């Protein structure tokens, strides 16, 4: 294992004895100060007497807040501190929790973010304290990991190195004012990397206390208790049933107007490059009713946009509530696509779920990710066209533009079938936005194969693309059967060419929006002009900024006021770049009011201007 990460130097600042004493006094509760026989004996307090609340470390050290993006739970009792005396007199759950406070970091996809919200809910129900914004203040440190690419794993190892330093040198760190936890932190590795590298993680210089896979989060409280008795805790068993359908996640996003909702877990596709089936297990879907219940809870909390999540989200198949199941042979795929895994029984499909949600929550927007191109039957596409609150945005991972490479990847389609699907989508949903994933330098990829990928990007004209150099993963079909024979420098050169090709082709999609009126959900101030401009997303997923001026409401009348976070605003687009739009705010409105009623008004409204 490498030496301590140089990141730890951020915390290695001089700290005099007088300053340490002042900090110590500042972090003692009023009750402890009143019961101290004399102040000179304060250093004799046991660690168990230290309160579990303190001001944010990042507020004392601007270098911390500038170096890391720490996410604070909306329920953290110290989130709104006024004066020191008020803080001392205000009782909080952090003072009474004996199990400790939690710090968490998440790497990887949106599913990992949602999983962390599930973990926080489980820990809260088990009696653990609130979250803190920095690891130096936590008694439990969670790091939720990604195993898709080697680069993501290397970042995790670096952070584990620092967390181990906090644990190993805890006594010294407390003495010099670097750490503020009441005991050495327990370090917990979660997610796909935990599943893939469980033995290696435990063997790494005893830096980790608990390793827990994506299907075992309910077991976390027990695993942490095992650590108290000197044992390591590990549960990486995969499940055929676990969906956490009965757990209400604790939202960690500072943006309260949007939320993630997981509707299925796992993947059956077995693409040759992908580790997900081995870290997330087989596909299983949540019952429709449990999803509707969670979305209803979010609606009451003021959430305006929901992202439906799944490793293969549009293969959703709820068989839990069907009295008579259809045979799997009736499962319709996109035309020209095939699947290696056959469906046993057909239940409620993704289109059924979207229809239910869009009907019951007409003032909420719905997006979804990440789908597979094989699961876009016509029924789903026509539903997206008809429902104004199902966004006109589809992520359509291609991975390669070469049919030869696609076959080696076991994707189940050819270049021609993919392009035919793109054409069908655009015929049915004219103003749709498309994004994709691409892998450069997969096993055996030739220059001709690479050129076909570049030509596919030009032919489709994506709004967004996620592009990566191939990183071979153990356990995959490619690892067992292919040779990673494309040199790293060739991978990087092809990746650069792919990125340049995408940037050259995407501008047209943004330029086409000039002159149209877009419905923008306001997410917050524009960071480039925070005092005068707001920014949000259009139905198509484009970032739109506009000057925030007082405006009327187009359907409700009432006061003329500035837009705020969570408002829907009609914006006329006046200019564009290759990645964003700028417009003139016309009026505040509602989601249903903007599109009026009927199925065709969605496009008439956008194209009328």
TrEMBL record:
GO biological process, one term: regulation of primary metabolic process
Alphabetized UniProt keyword annotations: 4Fe-4S, Iron, Iron-sulfur, Metal-binding, S-adenosyl-L-methionine
Cofactor(s) needed: [4Fe-4S] cluster
MTTase N-terminal domain span: 100-229
Domain Radical SAM core span(s) in chain numbering: 253-509
Segments forming domain TRAM: 511-587
Gene3D superfamilies linked to this entry: Methylthiotransferase, N-terminal domain, tm_1862 like domain
InterPro entries: Elp3/MiaA/NifB-like_rSAM, Methylthiotransferase, Methylthiotransferase_CS, Methylthiotransferase_N, Methylthiotransferase_N_sf, MiaB_methiolase, rSAM, rSAM_horseshoe
UniProt entry tagged with the keyword Repeat: no
GO molecular function: 4 iron, 4 sulfur cluster binding; metal ion binding; tRNA-2-methylthio-N(6)-dimethylallyladenosine(37) synthase activity
GO cellular component terms given for this protein: cytosol; mitochondrion
Superkingdom assignment: Eukaryota
Family of the protein in this entry: Belongs to the methylthiotransferase family. MiaB subfamily.
Name recorded for this polypeptide: tRNA-2-methylthio-N(6)-dimethylallyladenosine synthase
Species of the source: Rhynchospora pubera
Lineage: Eukaryota, Viridiplantae, Streptophyta, Embryophyta, Tracheophyta
């Amino acid at each position: 294992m490498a030496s301590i990460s140089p990141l730890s130097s951020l915390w290695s600042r001089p700290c005099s004895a007088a300053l340490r004493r002042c900090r110590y006094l500042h972090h003692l509760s009023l009750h402890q100060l009143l019961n101290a026989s004399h102040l000179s004996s304060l250093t004799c307090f046991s660690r168990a007497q230290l309160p579990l609340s303190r001001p944010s470390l990042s507020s004392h050290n601007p270098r911390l807040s500038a170096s890391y993006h720490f996410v604070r739970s909306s329920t953290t009792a110290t989130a709104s501190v006024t004066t020191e005396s008020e803080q001392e007199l205000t009782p909080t759950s952090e003072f009474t929790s004996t199990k400790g406070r939690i710090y968490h970091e998440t790497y990887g996809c949106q599913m990992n973010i949602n999983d962390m919200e599930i973990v926080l809910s489980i820990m809260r129900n088990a009696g653990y304290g609130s979250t803190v914004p920095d690891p130096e203040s936590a008694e439990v440190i969670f790091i939720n990991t990604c195993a898709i690419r080697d680069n993501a794993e290397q970042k995790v190892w670096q952070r584990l190195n620092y967390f181990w330093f906090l644990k190993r040198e805890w006594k010294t760190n407390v003495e010099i004012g670097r750490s503020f936890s009441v005991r050495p932190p327990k370090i917990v590795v979660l997610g796909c990397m935990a599943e893939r590298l469980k033995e290696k993680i435990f063997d790494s210089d005893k830096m980790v206390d608990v390793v827990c896979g994506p299907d075992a989060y309910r077991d976390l409280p027990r695993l942490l208790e095992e650590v108290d008795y000197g044992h390591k805790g590990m549960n990486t068993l995969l499940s055929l049933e676990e969906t956490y359908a009965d757990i209400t996640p604790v939202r960690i996003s500072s943006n309260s107007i949007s939320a993630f909702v997981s509707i299925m877990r796992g993947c059956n596709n077995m693409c040759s490059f992908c580790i997900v089936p081995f870290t997330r297990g087989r596909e299983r879907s949540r019952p429709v009713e449990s999803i509707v219940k969670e979305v209803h809870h979010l609606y009451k909390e003021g959430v305006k946009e929901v992202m439906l999540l799944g490793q293969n989200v549009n293969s959703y198949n709820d068989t839990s509530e069907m009295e008579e199941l259809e045979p799997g042979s009736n499962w319709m795929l996109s035309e020209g696509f095939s699947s290696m895994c056959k469906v046993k029984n057909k239940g409620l499909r993704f289109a059924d779920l979207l229809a239910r949600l869009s009907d019951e929550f007409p003032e909420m927007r719905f997006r979804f990710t990440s789908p597979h191109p094989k699961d876009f039957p016509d029924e789903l596409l026509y539903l997206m066209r008809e429902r104004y609150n199902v966004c006109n945005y589809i992520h359509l991972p291609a991975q390669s533009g070469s049919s030869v490479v696609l076959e080696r990847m076991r994707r189940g389609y050819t270049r021609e079938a993919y392009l035919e699907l793109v054409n069908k989508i655009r015929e049915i949903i004219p103003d749709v936005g498309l994004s994709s994933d691409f892998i450069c330098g997969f096993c055996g990829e030739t220059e001709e194969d690479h050129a076909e990928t570049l030509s596919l990007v030009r032919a489709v004209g994506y709004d967004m693309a996620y592009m990566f150099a191939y990183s071979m993963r153990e356990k995959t079909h490619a690892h067992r059967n292919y040779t990673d024979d494309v040199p790293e420098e060739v991978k990087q050169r092809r990746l650069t060419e792919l990125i340049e090709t995408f940037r050259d082709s995407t501008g047209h999609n943004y330029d086409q929006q000039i002159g149209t009126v877009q419905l923008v959900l306001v997410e917050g101030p524009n960071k480039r002009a925070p005092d005068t401009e707001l920014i949000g997303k259009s139905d198509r997923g484009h970032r739109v900024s506009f000057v925030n001026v007082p405006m009327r409401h187009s359907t409700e009348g009432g006061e003329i006021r500035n837009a705020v976070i969570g408002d829907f605003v009609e914006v006329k687009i006046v200019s564009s770049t290759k990645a964003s739009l700028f417009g003139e705010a016309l009026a505040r409105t509602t989601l249903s009011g903007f599109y009026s009623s009927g199925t065709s008004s969605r496009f008439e409204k956008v194209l009328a201007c």
